[in-house]
DNA sequence: TATTGTTATACTCTATAACTATA
DNA sequence: TATAGTTATAGAGTATAACAATA
């Protein structure tokens, strides 16, 4: 019955959705989606990782990884290389174009960050970031890995 | 090329998804989903509103509202009443059971809030909440209305 | 003719499970 | 027999547009 004002959890959910949507709109202009950005980031951080590893670390279904990598490969952003010891695995690496595009994504991300936080003064941003990092650590959220909105097991 | 650490926007997106997922798991035990909770909340805040109004305020498709209200009506949580002046509109109100269930949802929400922020001291929570409210206002997010994750036009 | 709510349909998206090739 | 990747398929979910009743 109490007309409750939204708490921290709801505000996070609201603002998080807003941030994700706006970021999605920005990377769309680069022909990407947020999940594809996550894939590029992960391959950049761990060049040569297999599709299984990628699926495991990002929480994606293997069949979905195939579709993503197909897409990125056809666009010349990623290469698949058969393993020499185990010829079943596909090792993933970024092409020069992929690295270039990821750099653009990072720039876009920086602009997004700045625009989204525009209302906050520098010291407020630092405060907020510290609090959010604290909270994220307490929930054991891997830095840079998005929990996604449906593929939680 | 820079190995950037996640910024505020990404942390918000990460934590927001986590908060939403955990809240969804809690209300699932009450037989509800987050969107259904939003519908119940809105009807409680504006008893007698029409389905069109509900769709407009929550950003839902009219056909989706029909499905939601069908569901809630069949469970005896909401009633439809034809308008007397304009017999096309359906006025929505909560039943006693609906109000009761919403009260439970609010309790669940309070427990969720507390659990989610467990790592933060009371003064940190107050700080964080103030910063988030500031940010939410700057993005013109209506208090209590979730922007959702797909139905942005 | 326009609007409210409803229904039907076409479309996309996701998950599951078969399938192949290697091991 | 088990595993990495791939393909195919069935199911769920979504948006679009047709529809009936009322204005």
UniProtKB/TrEMBL annotation, chains A, B:
GO terms for molecular function: DNA binding; DNA-binding transcription factor activity. Residues 5-137 form the HTH marR-type domain. SUPFAM superfamilies: Winged helix' DNA-binding domain. It comes from the Bacteria. GO terms for biological process: response to stress. Gene3D superfamilies: Winged helix-like DNA-binding domain superfamily/Winged helix DNA-binding domain (1.10.10.10). This is DNA-binding transcriptional regulator, MarR family. It comes from Saccharopolyspora kobensis.
